[in-house]
Amino acid sequence: MRKNAILKYLKPYTKHCIIAPFFKFIEAVLELYLPLIMARVIDKGIGKSDTGYVLAMGGIMFAVIAVGLACSLVCQYVASIASQGYGTVLRNAVFRHINSLSHSQIDKFGVPSLVNRVTGDIQQLQHAVAMLLRLVVRAPFLCIGGIVMAASIDLYLAAVVLVSIPLFILIITLVMKSTIRLHGIVQKKLDRLSLILRENLSGVRVIRAFARTGGENIRFSDAAKEHAGASLKAGLISSLLNPATHIIMNLAILAIVWIGGIRIEIGAITTGEVIAFINYVNMILLALIVVSNLVITFTKAYASALRVGELLQTSPDISNPETPAQPAQSDAAIEFSNVCFSYSGKREHYDLQGINIKIPKGSVVGIIGGTGSGKSTLVNLLMRFYDVSKGRILINGSDIRDYGIETLRSMIGLVPQKAELFTGTVAENIRWGNPGATDEDVKSAAKTAQAAEFIERLPEQYNTKIERGGTNLSGGQKQRLAIARALVRKPEILILDDSSSALDYATDAKLRRALRSYINESRGERTVILVSQRVSAVKSADLILVMDDGRLVGAGKHDELLYSCEEYREICAYQTDGEEAGQ
Length: 583
What we know:
Blueprint: H1 2-7, H2 14-46, H3 51-100, H4 103-109, H5 111-135, H6 138-153, H7 155-202, H8 204-209, H9 213-238, H10 241-265, H11 271-312, E1 332-341, E2 352-360, E3 364-369, H12 375-382, E4 390-395, E5 398-399, H13 405-410, E6 412-415, E7 424-425, H14 426-430, H15 439-448, H16 452-455, E8 465-466, H17 475-487, E9 493-497, H18 505-521, E10 527-531, H19 535-538, E11 543-548, E12 551-556, H20 558-564, H21 566-575, H22 578-581
Parallel strand pairs: 3-10, 3-11, 6-9, 9-10
Antiparallel strand pairs: 1-2, 1-4, 4-5, 7-8, 11-12
């Protein structure tokens, strides 16, 4: 099943898969014909000192070689198109499929493993396709054809070859059974190596700050040794193929020379035929060596095919409905109705439980609570990064599962906790939220997000290049650009998930005032959700939701919650003194 999942991507190159083996077959036929010509040159030309015959047959041999070379070049060219095209199509399909998976499925596979499957595993499959088209027809045909041609010369000598072939097949079978599992282990070890490398490159500042470079070197070294050990074990078994092949076939040649000498003495065959027979045996030997190398290549490809097939056969947890709903009109922008959710999928323990709340359209809603209380989980469910385990979430009166995923997410502008920026200019990063945004739209969004001030101080202002991950910007600057990116989208629902944590209090206050003006300009049609651990950030919100251990323990305005919600009073007490909390 997993193999079928990746073979279908070879269909666009069906024509190439026919043409390449066909030309390789012609080359193999011509190659089988050469030893017979050589036998005639020895017996009739050199044996009878006929120079004209030698030259004539030499011309035929040259023509055969030239045609064979042309066929080989055609095969190589066509096979390259097919293998490279297959790799590109498959890689694009896998990338699209990864983007369709839910966050929980991506977490299950792990980012390093997904990267290795898209790069290393598909590269291995691409190489296998090239070898398949170029050699899988030629090598067996030369092997079988060589045996047939050798048998046509002398059956007694051919019996020596026929005895050696089963031994070779036995060795191939044993090696394949041993190495398929080992190559799968090698890829898993590579996944772990990639994970450690990724963690060290992304967290290099933290590692150096805590003087953990030595410890990480040891951890990486241990993982590298495990990978090297697994690779050596697989390589050791695979390396037995070539010497085993040489031993078997060289013993066969030794027996052929000995028996051939006896056959020449009794006049059963000629010297030229013995030389032709040895050429066929060498041809069979080389074909078997190629087959042994192909076994190693296809064994690795089989392990990679299982990994890529496993990924492609993973059906997305979250998909579009058959008949997507269209945005409707409702007084409530968002409604959580008895929402329960578990990251593990187990109903015995819910990470969110019994959430019931209606959020009016055009309101500013604050969500506050301690670390791990479920604030960001609410946001993830609203964006449908995960689906609820129980209950439902409605936007404009319709269940979010009834919307098309693109339609749903186009209605929402999200600023996540960690501001992720991409390589490109400042303007290009802001336009991520709306590729069709004008320069004025970009500048207006930057102004509202309090980003215009620092952007205009940059060397090239909005055309300033941003390095990977925004490493040439501060945390607060990245957060403001992420807010501008969401604002330029002009969404119905704007979600700021603790997105001002890196801002100073003055800039945070300016941002809140600008957002209030932004909401007023939309005439009450735009809803803003502020997720924060700061009381000051949500204090003036129209509605404050208090989360604690996955439950909604309070909902109301600041003054109301001070009297009705103990958890909210505790949060206020930690952040301000009693008099400030009551203001």
